[in-house]
Amino acid sequence: MNLANRITVARILLVPIIMFFLLIKVKFPHIRIEEFSITYNQIIAALIFIIAASTDSLDGYIARKRNLVTNLGKLLDPLADKLLVTAVLVSLVEMDKVDAWIVIVIISREWAVTGLRQIALLEGTVMAASKWGKAKTAAQITAIIALLINNFPFTFLHIPFDVIASWAAAIITVYSGIEYFVKNKHVIDFSEKTQ
Questions:
Q1: Range 158-165 average pLDDT
Q2: Measuring CA to CA, how many Å separate 171 from each of 7, 94, 174, 178?
Q3: TM segments (predicted)?
Q4: pLDDT reading at 100 higher than 90
């Protein structure tokens, strides 16, 4: 359990804490500025999410820089990312802040690509992250933060940035998933092999 893996585990442990602050049925005070309103628990959850999301690049950087790449890290890192994004998106559906279909599309893509990666590993192939995969992660994190903070500061400009960001995240997520399957179609062989 090296430093990089500890950071990854810390990211996983932050997931239930974020969900606690988002889904707890306690009346927290609101901050109100004109038509904008947000609860303190949402602010706390958003800050923890930002910290957790920022550790994604940090643990990978440390693992490569210090030559600490391990099989455990290869397993935990993508798992931690998916747990974080999935848990917060499902919580946002429960809070009625995002359409369920968007979350279903995003989660379905994540697990489909995970399955493809597993098949590739069994074939001895490592699927590298693509630029669209990285764009997908950035889009998802941006959308989640916008939803967590109730579209601040765009509410004052009457711009539904949180809705736009959610749609953009869904579109980029689907596109990046299609790209993974097209680029790695050789991994899945549907033809019947004859001896």
A1: 96
A2: 30, 22, 5, 11
A3: 6-24, 44-63, 137-157, 163-182
A4: yes
Q: Report yes or no: 78 and 114 within 8 Å, Cβ to Cβ.
A: yes
Q: Residue 38 in 3-state DSSP?
A: strand
Of 174, 177, 82, the residue nearest 129 (C-alpha): 177
Q: Which long-range contacts (CB under 8 A, 24 or more apart) does 161-166 make?
A: 162/97, 165/139, 166/98, 166/99, 166/102
Query: Are the C-beta atoms of residues 52 and 15 closer than 8 Å to each other?
Result: yes
**Which residues are CB-contacts of 1 (< 8 A; sequence separation ≥ 6)?**
9, 72
| Spatial CB neighbours of 73, under 8 Å, sequence gap ≥ 6 | 2, 4, 5, 8, 59, 63
Averaged pLDDT for residues 178-188:
86
Q: What is the pLDDT at residue 22? A: 94
Alpha carbon distance 117, 119 (integer Å): 5
Count of other CB atoms within 10 angstroms of residue 1: 10
Instruction: Tell which wins on pLDDT, 127 or 40.
Output: 40
Q: What is the pTM of this model?
A: 0.89
